[in-house]
Amino acid sequence: MDENKAEASENTEIKKKRFHEHVLGLHLYAFGILRRMYDWVLSWAHTKYGWVALFILAFAEASFFPIPPDVLLIALCVSLPSSSFRFATLSTIGSVLGGILGYYIGYGLYESVGIKIIEAFHYQEAFDTVGSLYLDNAFWSITAAGFTPLPYKVFTIAAGVWKVPLLTVVLASLLSRASRFFLVAGLLYFFGPRMKEFIDKYFNWLTVAFFVLLIGGFVVIKLVL
What we know:
Distance between the termini: 63 Å
Strand content: under 5%
Largest sheet: none
Order of helices and strands: HHHHHHHHHH
Number of domains: 1
Helix content: over 70%
Number of helices: 10
């Protein structure tokens, strides 16, 4: 009887927590906070400091900021196609360095900083799942997260919490982030502004498809060699 009451009480607390998180999420979207962040990020494309903003955005997104750098990368590549690969390089360097910051947030500051980032964007469930993925293959888990639309900061912070070797994080980040950003830059460089609408509409599918091809290539090389 007591066990049933304890279980019922625990279920009630879980429901209350989920309700609170749901309300918080609705509150954020209702006031358009994420949309305003998105518009603010894009506004930097029309300034001479766009490249600086891109580097900072890529750095921040890998550790705590919700808006991915792709939105600004696309805008800058459209406005200045000849510098597309330079922008991709900046994005890659910034993101890898930001991933290192995310790693150390998880490694030594999770209880004071990391958990607040995870809870603020309702990533707790994803964060717990990442831990189990690291037990199987941390390198490919981080690579997948860095290339696909998955929240990369969850993986970098989790890597620190689960004590994944820093070199693994850096190499996986470099592979995945470079592949992702240079794919976007390359499409815009070779196909021009017409590609922007296509990327905006099918970006998630493009990244997933390219990642599958990338992994397939490694598998083929391994089998051949």
